[in-house]
């Protein structure tokens, strides 16, 4: 059943399974249909669910939908997938949340695995090189758009602008670790709210073309009531599911293997992805490229381009990172088996926490939404995220527009300085085209990427320099 062939809003529905508001099989078909349309980042993904579940099927009211969205915005991780888990839980309990969250990411996992294998097998051919040469500068423009959109919504006061600038400087110049920036930003938001309560105005999330805005939370409660027994059970099961695969690869492949390292590293990043995938990608890129050497900076940009073209959350790019890292350091396994194991393990530890956060916190949502301290801390983090994403844009721009970027240290300052002799004029031209298409023509991300990929392919086939 698609989003357009549902019964009329007031037509009696079939008897729900096990007392669920919606029959589970009918919900499964709907979640599968939604999963095939989750392009365009969280704004587009939230809009797809809004249209299908609120406007067309009328399975959930607008206030209830926005209530769930506002809660998911407080959590680390991809808010759109967490919104799917939460809504699935409302409709069909735990099994509904599991089904909705799994189906939401499954098409993207399969598609990015195939694209990662294609990149490893054929990435040096002229055609594939040209496609990536067009995709990479388009990604720079897409990240720049993210800076603008998040900043326009979040930086409503000079103090918040200052917090964003300080976060950018801490990352780009002082190389302060990303988790430290997030913690300090949260504390700063709490302190600013105490000293200057008027700084934090109600956020107009979803204003304009950024998806639906959270309105007044719905007071209706789910039949599952919070209890210590329920919380303990979910916490135990969730932590075991999260930790056992990492422990298993540590026992079977060694604590120093690439699989154990990836499992632990991406488990940690899953806890600090406030503000969306863009916010944490600068940290992932820094660690994956400079610390672990799993891939190059240019390949990180290409991986993000691939993730932009597939359905599902953008944080799926970590699967590409793990695929390449494990392929190049397979240990006792074959490179292809190692790549598959690394990619699947990383996907597992990235998304299992999303289920855990929702199942643990959903019954307490009313109390959490009324907690002013949590709200102001997250507002501080959101302001800092603007600086974090700006740092990501700078990182991608330098490694896309220049073949060589050198690190220079001046006392406590660490600067990445490009070698201007390695400037790529064709790449700059494609990046400018992407900027015009996104900011002026208002093309979608997928359409922009496709057009720029075609430009890169044409330039490569024509023998343009720097491709």
From TrEMBL:
Annotated coiled-coil segments of the chain: none
Entry keyword ATP-binding: no
Localization in the cell: Cell membrane
Molecular function per GO: chromate transmembrane transporter activity
Membrane topology: Multi-pass membrane protein
Record bears the keyword Phosphoprotein: no
Signal sequence extent: none
GO cellular component labels: plasma membrane
InterPro entries linked: Chr_Tranpt_l_chain (IPR014047), Chromate_transpt (IPR003370)
Sequence intervals crossing the membrane: 98-120, 126-148, 155-174, 234-252, 264-284, 305-327, 339-365, 377-397, 417-439, 446-464
Spans annotated as Disordered: 1-21
Assigned keywords, A-Z: Cell membrane, Membrane, Transmembrane, Transmembrane helix
Family: Belongs to the chromate ion transporter (CHR) (TC 2.A.51) family.
Protein's name in the database: Chromate efflux transporter
Organism expressing this protein natively: Streptomyces cyaneochromogenes
Source organism phylogeny: Bacteria, Bacillati, Actinomycetota, Actinomycetes, Kitasatosporales
């Amino acid at each position: 059943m698609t989003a357009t062939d549902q019964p009329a809003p007031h037509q009696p529905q079939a008897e729900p399974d096990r007392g669920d508001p919606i029959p589970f099989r009918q919900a499964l078909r709907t979640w599968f249909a939604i999963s095939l349309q989750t392009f365009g980042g969280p704004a587009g993904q939230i809009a797809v669910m809004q249209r299908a579940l609120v406007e067309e099927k009328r399975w959930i009211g607008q206030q209830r939908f926005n209530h769930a969205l506002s809660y998911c915005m407080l959590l680390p991780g991809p808010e759109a997938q967490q919104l799917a888990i939460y809504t699935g839980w409302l409709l069909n309990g735990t099994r509904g949340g599991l089904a909705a969250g799994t189906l939401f990411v499954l098409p993207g996992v399969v598609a990015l695995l195939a694209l990662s294998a294609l990149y490893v097998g054929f990435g040096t051919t002229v055609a594939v090189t040209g496609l990536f040469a067009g995709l990479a500068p388009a990604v720079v423009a897409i990240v720049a758009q993210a800076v603008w959109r998040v900043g326009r919504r979040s930086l409503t006061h000079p103090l918040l602008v200052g917090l964003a600038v300080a976060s950018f400087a801490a990352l780009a110049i002082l190389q302060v670790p990303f988790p430290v920036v997030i913690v300090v930003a949260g504390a700063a938001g709490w302190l600013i709210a105490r000293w200057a309560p008027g700084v934090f105005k109600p956020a107009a999330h979803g204003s304009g073309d950024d998806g639906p805005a959270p309105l007044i939370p719905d007071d209706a409660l789910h039949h599952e009531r919070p209890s210590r027994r329920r919380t303990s059970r979910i916490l135990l099961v969730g932590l075991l599911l999260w930790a056992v695969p990492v422990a298993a690869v540590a026992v079977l492949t060694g604590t120093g293997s690439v699989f154990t390292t990836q499992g632990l590293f991406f488990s940690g990043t899953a806890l600090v992805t406030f503000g969306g995938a863009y916010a944490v990608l600068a940290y992932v890129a820094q660690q994956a490229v400079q610390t672990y050497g799993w891939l190059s900076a240019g390949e990180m940009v290409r991986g993000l381009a691939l993730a932009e073209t597939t359905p599902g959350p953008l944080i799926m790019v970590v699967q590409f990172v793990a695929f390449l890292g494990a392929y190049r350091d397979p240990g006792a396994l074959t490179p292809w088996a190692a790549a598959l194991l690394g990619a699947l393990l990383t996907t597992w530890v990235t998304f299992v926490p999303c289920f855990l956060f929702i199942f643990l916190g959903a019954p307490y949502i009313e109390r959490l939404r009324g907690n002013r301290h949590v709200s102001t801390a997250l507002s501080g983090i959101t302001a800092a995220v603007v600086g974090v994403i700006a740092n990501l844009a700078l990182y991608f721009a330098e490694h896309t527009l220049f073949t060589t970027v050198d690190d220079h240290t001046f006392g406590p300052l660490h600067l990445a300085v490009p070698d201007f002799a390695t400037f790529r004029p064709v790449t700059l031209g494609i990046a400018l085209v992407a900027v015009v298409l996104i900011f002026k023509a208002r093309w979608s991300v997928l359409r922009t990427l496709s057009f720029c990929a075609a430009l890169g392919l044409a330039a490569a086939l024509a023998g343009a320099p720097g491709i």
